[in-house]
Amino acid sequence: MEIKDSGQRRTFETGAVRDIAEGKGRCDIMPLFDIGNSFDDNILRLIGLYVEYGNISNLESAVKLFVESELTENPYDVLLDLSIFYEKGLIKYGEGNWTLGIPLHCFIDSGVRHYLKHMAGKADEPHDLAFLWNILGAIWTHRNKPEMIDLPFKEGDSNDENRS
Fold this sequence. Notes:
The protein is mainly alpha-helical and 164 residues long.
């Protein structure tokens, strides 16, 4: 299992670091709900609803749906693989780096990019695990580091999929 590394880092005010983002696209600013509708992709719809309204149950549902539909019948096998992914990240970035505080949009941006790469069949790194790591990081950050929430959530019902 390899986690790709450009060798270049961006450092956040909290001291957390991540690989650079320039030139990779900005998946967090795409109209994810509408793309999900166009491609009949419930995972993108759920992430899009989260980005618009901030209800983390949408991210939790996206994780569950992804594991059930894309990975395995036994989610505990996925969690064991994910624990190795966390360990590799610890080696790459240091103990607890991701808990220091990374802006929420970074998790969504990277998570959606890895999801798209997984769905496109790219095998250059474990995009399935990277997707899960990022979305779980977004959920954790939303709950534990509210100062890192940098998405402009709208008021309203985040479960209203028939909005105009």
